[in-house]
Amino acid sequence: MKIRMIAVLCVLASVLTGCATTPPYDYTAFRESNPRSILVLPPVNESLDTSASYSFLTQVSLPLAEAGYYVFPVAVVEETFRENGMSNPEEIHSLGLDKLNEVFGADSVIYIKITQYGTSYQLLASDTRVTAQASLVDSRSGQLLWKGQATASSTEQSNNNGGGLVGLLIVALVEQVINSTTDRSYQIAGMTSSRLLSAQTVNGVLPGPRLRDRQRQ
């Protein structure tokens, strides 16, 4: 009984004092591995949008390159798999690291999974949301170096507080037209990719050698 009371008090304290600070990530294995190059595998898509994997894949190189790593060109990597009869991301993710090393010779491999991708429509609002998870693995030892998750949503850019019911309906209509006539999911995927794979985010990837060299200059 006393333990339950303490647990309740802890929950109440956390509510009253706000969200807890995100604990720091343990980068011990990442620093010991010190990868210089990253092989990005085609993302596994668990969303209902069949274009999610390719759409997200085209946007992962920039944040990783800006973080200071050499990123194997994703188009070349994808074509290499295709020439060897492999186009399914789940099948590619199941390949052994020894095989990936034999073909590409990258220091590390990043596995990405998309859990949300697309727009959901409601009466007074529409939300385009992309959520992805990533794991970076040492290609030689198989050691997990880093993992993370990120989400971005179109509602972050919306302001539906004013105008009453009529205002909400107008905003919802405008947003649905925009989402229908533009590839909003692709734009939101770019935000998610940046948050997930940037060296500037909390508990993100560590700065790579090229970024560290620039920071020393």
TrEMBL record:
InterPro entries: GNA1162-like
Cited Gene3D superfamilies: ABC-type transport auxiliary lipoprotein component
PROSITE patterns membership: PROKAR_LIPOPROTEIN (PS51257)
Pfam families: GNA1162-like (PF05643)
Protein name, per record: Lipoprotein
